UniProtKB/TrEMBL annotation:
InterPro entries linked to this entry: Knr4/Smi1-like_dom, Knr4/Smi1-like_sf
Annotated source species: Eubacterium ventriosum
Domain of life: Bacteria
A Pfam cross-reference name: SMI1_KNR4
Residues of the Knr4/Smi1-like domain: 14-75
Name of the featured protein: SMI1/KNR4 family protein
Gene3D superfamilies from the UniProt entry: SMI1/KNR4-like
SUPFAM superfamilies: SMI1/KNR4-like (SSF160631)
Length: 81
């Protein structure tokens, strides 16, 4: 399972769907990448990348900021019962 995820992330990067300034470290149940910006504006912020929508300015998946830091992201996680 992890091999498929790593391969999918590599394909997204090589096809230019995710910025080189992003480190993809997870995905949701629908396969949308979750990444940390490692360069540029909003460095160290966490983003949700919608694989069904494209940013028309740069061709990347549409990214939505979900947290200002990894610590904040972890604190926002919860289990749905």
């Amino acid at each position: 399972m992890w091999r498929k995820r790593i391969l999918r992330i590599s394909i997204m990067k090589s096809e230019g769907l995710v910025s080189e300034e992003c480190f993809v470290f997870a995905d949701d149940s629908a396969g949308n990448p979750i990444c940390m910006k490692i360069g540029g504006e909003d460095k160290e912020s966490i983003f949700f990348c919608n694989h069904e929508l494209e940013n028309t300015n740069n061709g990347y998946f549409l990214m939505s900021k979900v947290a200002d830091s990894f610590d904040e992201f972890i604190k926002k996680l919860y289990i749905i019962e």
